[in-house]
Design brief:
The chain is an alpha/beta fold. It has 3 domains: 202 residues, P-loop containing nucleotide triphosphate hydrolases (Rossmann fold); 155 residues, P-loop containing nucleotide triphosphate hydrolases (Rossmann fold), CATH 3.40.50.300; 74 residues, Alpha-Beta Plaits, CATH 3.30.70. 35% of the residues lie in helices and 21% in strands. Strands 3-4-2-5-6-1-7 form a 7-stranded parallel beta sheet, with helices on both faces. Helix 3 crosses helix 4. It starts with 10 loop residues before the first helix and ends with a strand. The protein binds adenosine-5'-diphosphate and magnesium ion. Magnesium ion (MG) binds next to helix 3.
Amino acid sequence: MKKFNELKIKNEILQALEFEKFEQMTTIQSLCLKDILEKKDVIVKSKTGSGKTLCFALPLANEVKNKPMVIQSLILAPTRELANQISLEIKKVLRFIPNIKVLSLCGGTPFKPQVASLEVGAHIVVGTVGRILQHIHETKIDFSSVNSFVLDEADKMLDMGFYEDIVKIAEYIPQKRQTLLFSATYEKEIEELSSKLLDKPLFIENVETHKQESITQKFYETNEDRKVDDLLRVISHYKMKTILIFCNTKAMCEDLSTQLWNRGVESLTLHSDLDQRERDETVILFSNGSLPILIATDIVSRGIDIDNIDFVINFNIARDETIHTHRIGRTARGEKKGIAVTLYDKDEYYKVKPINEKFPDIEFCDVLEYEDSSYKPRAEYKTLLITGGKKHKLRKGDILGALTAGEGLDKDLIGNITILDFVSFVAVKNEVLDDRLLKLGKIKIKKKLFKLIEK
Ligand code: ADP
Ligand code: MG
């Protein structure tokens, strides 16, 4: 494994990587960073969770110039969640490089404040396709100084039908630029898009793509009438704690969630019918350990980096092996190990076969009919919403301080803290529940009172 200090990059960036405890490059990083730093156009194909974000975040952070304050990089991503994660990752790399503005321009959030931010200026823009186009049409957004153009999760953006829109956006960026395309698959349409937008690109593929050795896959044959009970048997068998369940349709997600509810098992759903705020909240609750089961469509099977998922369950087997690969990639992020379970009906065996060809290590198991299914996954944390956020200049330390020094909570009882623009979310261990604090419904942070609401 290679170390980052073998690259010709700024010291501040090496410090930032050290700060993040990124000691070595991941395989895909060691394969492509040198070429990307040399400004070549590159197509990178690698599985989810392999560390692709840094492959562009690092070079563009290394290159960005503080003055003049013009947009030098544009990164397109399929969803707002993903765009926000990319912004975060870039900011991590920029930790010790002051005064660089990274701006997120995504749909699902008000347009006007974005226009105001743009007027102040930005060095790096991360956005979703639709919203970037809207800015091109309705504001004076200026991409004439962009020298690096990044398409992250290009396959997903094409699945969403953005081919023409991406090409359109590219027309507003100078031809003399570096273009990078990241994808977990490489199909015909991607090839077309690359030949249109990239200049003599290198194609770099992570040969480990298909190994997925850190994920144990178990397949269970079941049938329609006993499927939900079999699901609960499997969950009981492994005493699962954080579980991401995939269904093929929104309706299936809702239906399964209701059926679980009827059996006393708590879950939330995540799909495109929910508005952005609900989706954000659900992702926060799930990733901070306050929600044991998240039932989702393939909207989350790519890109979003939710940590600590122990189990992925395909309640509906995926349509093809590419989707399957994306789904199971949600577990075993980084160096962790994970288990992916797939339930299938006998008459769905034709879908199992191609997946099994790609993953020969799949273990086929029987659901134990007499297995106890009474175990209920329980969240370790509860989430509290605080009615103050970045706009109130709240930082993690302020909230942590208010809860510990201010309210006398033990630090070990407090989990993730997420600060959004106007609200914040704090995960606290369940035992804090009937605390005086919650009855009061208020908390004093930096001498100001904020409302405290249990989610
Ligand atoms: P991908 O885009 O390939 O799905 P990400 O870029 O989201 O993967 O990275 C997955 C996780 O691995 C992230 O949490 C990221 O911070 C972490 N990561 C990336 N590079 C390294 C590294 N060199 N060492 C340790 N962790 C890393
Ligand atoms: Mg990614």
